[in-house]
Specification:
219 residues, 2 domains, four-stranded antiparallel beta sheet, 33% helix
Length: 219
């Protein structure tokens, strides 16, 4: 009787092990399918990233901040002297940060974080009032953290104000600087054409055409 019992128990163990193995394999397959579907959905959403100009910050002309200025009278006599010297050589350089909002549909479920998505290249052309001013690219990849639906992209720009208005006097050039980066700044005359390249676990994915980025809607 003992031998029969042990033999029966062995059969039961084999059966249970077989059932457990099939259950585990089935579970792994389900997890793999779900993960794959999530990844594919996220890859589809990569092409649905949308961009919008948010603001201009840290605006300086010849290393003079204009963020706290609303009119020409707000510049000190020392500032004016420095600006006139630069103006005489037709090199009135402005530097600023163009802040871009990135609408990331993957961030709602954190999938962009799981996929380690990042903007690896972002060749751009900056336009002011329809005039092409300057072009460039990001200096290093920007990771999409996948925690906020709207993420941030900061582009550092340096340009000569003479490229905006040729044959202008210093007052007109400074008014442009105040309009872009002063206390009452507006970005409604700015637009950015860009061709994002997104890095993923399967390689880089380039947008098929340039995107015109403006400040009044996501595109």
């Amino acid at each position: 009787m003992k031998k029969i019992y042990i033999k029966s128990l062995s059969k039961i163990n084999k059966i249970n092990f077989g059932i457990l193995s099939k259950t585990l394999v089935g579970s792994f397959l389900i997890i793999a399918i779900i993960t794959s579907c999530s990844a594919l959905k996220s890859l589809e959403n990569i092409m649905k990233l949308k961009f919008k100009i948010n603001s201009v910050s840290n605006f300086e002309v010849q290393d003079i901040s204009v963020q706290d200025k609303a009119q020409l009278a707000d510049f000190s006599s020392t500032d004016i002297l420095k600006l006139l010297q630069a103006f005489s050589s037709q090199k009135l350089f402005a530097t600023f940060i163009l802040n871009i909002d990135v609408q990331n549909p993957n961030a709602r479920d954190g999938s962009s974080n799981n996929l380690n998505l990042e903007i690896v290249s972002f060749p751009w052309e900056l336009f002011f009032n329809g005039k092409n001013l300057i072009s460039g690219n990001i200096q290093e990849p920007i990771k999409l953290v996948g925690t906020n639906y709207n993420e941030k992209l900061k582009i550092k720009i340096t340009l000569n104000l003479f490229d905006i208005l040729n044959n202008s006097n210093i007052n007109e050039l400074l008014k442009v600087a105040l309009n872009l980066g002063g206390r009452n700044a507006s970005t409604n005359k700015l637009s950015l054409f860009a061709e994002p390249v997104i890095g993923t676990f399967i390689g880089n994915i380039s947008y098929p055409e340039k995107i015109k980025i403006v400040d009044y809607e996501f595109r």
